[in-house]
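note to self: dont lose this again. the chain is below, predicted strucutre after it. 238 aa total, dont forget to put it in the shared folder this time
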Amino acid sequence: MAESAKKTILSKGLLKNEELYKYILETSVLPREPQPLKEIREATAAHPWAVKAFAPDAGQSIQMVLKLLNAKKTIEIGVFTGYSLLLTALSIPDDGKIIAIDVDRSNYEIGLPIIKRAGVEHKINFIESQALPALDKLLEDQENEGSLDFALVDADKENNNKYHERVLKLLKVGGVVVYDNTLWKGTVCLPEDEVDGERNKEMRKFYMGFNKHLATDSRIQICVAPLGDGITICRRIY
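---
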């Protein structure tokens, strides 16, 4: 594994014992990671915002969810270079479809050659757009309501509450939406004065509120997992 890629994925873990996180990755995650995902992860490692890439241990859990759901129609809000997008494309059937929304196609272009070589580009409908207007456009067609099996939200975090309302309309009952970064570097449990940097303070406050909102939303069943930077798995129950 390239050293830069190794450093990037180790920085994503919330476990304070880096050796334990390394053990989990090297024992259970990376040996099962498909070759195209290894390639896209290593291609992303040189990106100045490589830390934004989806963590492979969180990705492994997403793959499991997709298989348990027998997911066929999905949406991804926030694509970056396409690690989680490729993971989803590899996990759903050959006639499955993914709506992929991101404001910046140039990052997606980094992973696109790998996606093409993996033979799954035909499953992806990439929409270069702000997510909210793209979601609103999807909802203009009533046939899209309750049509999706799975959603992954990993975009501009401040809009998560708005994404949540729209995504729930698109998900079928029993469908799952996953939110990334919900533990934000572990800051959600820290006093504000122990958090470094204004951005981290802002995101700590936001996620404390967002996590509370999800916990009290009777429409969903939730599970918070300390994978990557924290993911929250939400299953629509009505």
